[in-house]
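Good morning,

Attaching, inline, the backbone tokens for the sequence recovery test we're adding to the shared suite. The designed sequence is right after.
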């Protein structure tokens, strides 16, 4: 079985995925890191050089590959991955995958992402917290349709990585 973690950027997919993989003795794969390795460029550089459409095509291509080749793996998706190119359907149709939406409130996302925005291509240009809040609110509205198609929804607000990992284990086992 593979466990797919999805949700908006900053919700904790990578941290929780690593913790969960360690606790369940599973492999861990971050789709963004995988994509960067395959493309031999950072996501930021891919966006700069080739744009978002190219990035989304490659992201979908690598998701298919990872879903077909991975066994007993926790897979953290990029925040937009489920929302493009029929990717959520690929995940839902894969009988060897359990999908989990790590749901984080707007205010918590704004607080987490404001301090690290320069490392994230989609929000690097936003310099004011109210503008970031508007940006994330719009994205959450657009993306929640896809995120909520996950088999399970786990709230991350005011919880530690370990608490969330335990909650996921309880849901799955």
């Amino acid at each position: 079985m593979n466990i797919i973690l999805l949700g908006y950027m900053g919700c904790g997919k990578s941290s929780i995925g690593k913790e969960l993989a360690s606790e369940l003795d599973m492999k861990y794969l971050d789709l963004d890191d995988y994509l960067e390795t395959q493309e031999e460029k950072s996501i930021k550089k891919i966006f700069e050089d080739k744009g978002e459409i190219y990035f989304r095509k490659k992201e979908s291509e690598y998701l298919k590959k990872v879903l077909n080749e991975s066994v007993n793996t926790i897979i953290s998706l990029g925040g937009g991955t489920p929302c493009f190119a029929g990717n959520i359907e690929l995940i839902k149709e894969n009988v060897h995958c359990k999908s989990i939406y790590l749901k984080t409130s707007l205010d918590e996302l704004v607080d987490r992402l404001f301090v690290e925005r320069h490392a994230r291509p989609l929000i690097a240009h936003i310099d004011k917290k109210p503008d970031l809040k508007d940006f994330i609110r719009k994205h959450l509205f657009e993306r929640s349709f896809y995120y909520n198609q996950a088999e399970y929804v786990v709230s991350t607000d005011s919880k530690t990585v370990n608490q969330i990992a335990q909650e996921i284990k309880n849901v799955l086992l």
